[in-house]
Amino acid sequence: MSYQKTNMGKYIIKENILSDWEKVTNDLATEFVIKYFSAAESEFGEDYWWVAGEVGGVLFVNDYFFGFSRIVEAIRYEATAEQLFEYYKLEAKSHKENPMKVNFRNYVKGCDVGCDKE
Questions:
Q1: C-beta separation of 104 from 70 below 8 A
Q2: The CA-based dihedral angle spanning residues 13, 18, 21, 23, taken in that order and rounded to the nearest 10 degrees
Q3: What is the reported pLDDT for 99?
Q4: How far apart are alpha carbons 73 and 101 in whole angstroms?
């Protein structure tokens, strides 16, 4: 069971579930770094950590910042490094007057930036 009842009648999450989640989250981050960053391609090697120490938040990797959801999407949809970094640049250039018109999943599937596919 994932919850434990206290003597006050409240339920709390068992600590081992959170530590298991953190381990799996860190494993996914490591896989992401191995897949998309290579020491041979970078003068700095694999320099990465969770911003503010918040596992599952934003991962800093060699001067790039990736939210955990993007890490999961990149692995799940088998994005190439080229797709990941091109979309990263497109997102950085987008703004209120020129918002992104395609999500990452559809971009990886081949939809260009002007595509309205779901």
A1: yes
A2: -160
A3: 86
A4: 17
Q: Which residues of 90-107 are buried (b: 16+ CB within 10 A; e: fewer)?
A: eeeeeeeeeeeebebebb
In this prediction, residue 1 carries a pLDDT of 42
- What are the residue ranges spanned by the domains of the chain? 3-76, 79-118
Predicted pLDDT of residue 101: 85
What are residue 40's phi and psi, to 5 degrees?
-70, -30
10 or 74: which leads in pLDDT:
74
Q: Can you tell me the mean pLDDT for 16-31?
A: 92
Q: What is the number of other CB atoms lying within 10 angstroms of the CB of residue 115?
A: 14
Non-local (6+) Cβ contacts of 115 within 8 A are 101, 102, 106
How many Å apart are CA 104 and CA 2, to the nearest integer?
33
Of the two residues 79 and 94, the one the predictor is more confident about is 79
- DSSP code for 44: T
The reported pTM is 0.77
